[in-house]
Structures are given as structure tokens and as C-alpha cells.
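Question (not urgent): is this output format expected?
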Amino acid sequence: MKKLFFTIVFINLLHSQSTVDINNQEVLVMPNEAVVEVFGMVCSFCAYGLEKNLSNLDKINSKKYTNGVYVDIDNQYLKIAFQTKSQIDYKKIHSLILDAGFTPNVIYSIEKNELSQHTIDKTGNMKSMKHMHKHDHGDSHDHDSM
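Got this back:
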């Protein structure tokens, strides 16, 4: 019975993750995470500043990555891990990245087992965009976000 339970959990996890292409790097987007393409990161000091600012977000999972934040300077993205079933505050993430002196481009997350893409315009309004979802059987389908 235990084996069946773990098998079901593992299969659900596989179906609720997705990948996105950021600077020719395939990046895994997991449930309870936000992946953000960020322009302007060039050194480890940049990474440290972003990690410090973003690690203060509400409901962050500080046990994952470095205080809940992973920064990839070479490929210009970061990941933020949140506690299970936490609401992701896209505007707050966007604001903290801007305050640190960088430009957030697209924020990716898994919502209702689907890949979602969000941008925040200059007036602070969130905009959901059309996205591609890669399925295990090799097909890709367009979906409209919210």
C-alpha cells in the first residue's frame, strides 16, 4: 500500500512540472516555485543581493536552495521556493527585483497543474500570457492563461 501511494505521488509530481527555455537553457518549473527571467545579473554580488531581498518574501520555503532562492547568473534567471499551497505574490517579486536594480522579464509558475507566465507592466498591472506546455509524450500545446 505504501509503495502504491509513493508511486501515485511521484506520477502526480511528474505531470505537474514543466520546462521553459530561458537563454537557451531548459529550466524546470516545479509546483510551489516561481522561476523569473531577470536581466542585468552579472556577478555573484548581484546574486547575493537578490537572494537576500527575495528570501524575506512571505511563505518562502527557506529549506530549499539558499534561504529559498536559487540564482543562475549565467542564464539570467532565479527560482524562488514557496511553502506548499502558498499564494505567489507576483507583484511583490517583481517589485523586489526592480528595487534591487534588475529587470524582471517573465515570471513562470505552475497553477492548477498548468504552466503560467506573468509579466507586470510599468503601471503595476499583472498580465497573464499565452504559454506552451510540454507534455511527456512530446506534443506541445498552446494554452491561454487565466
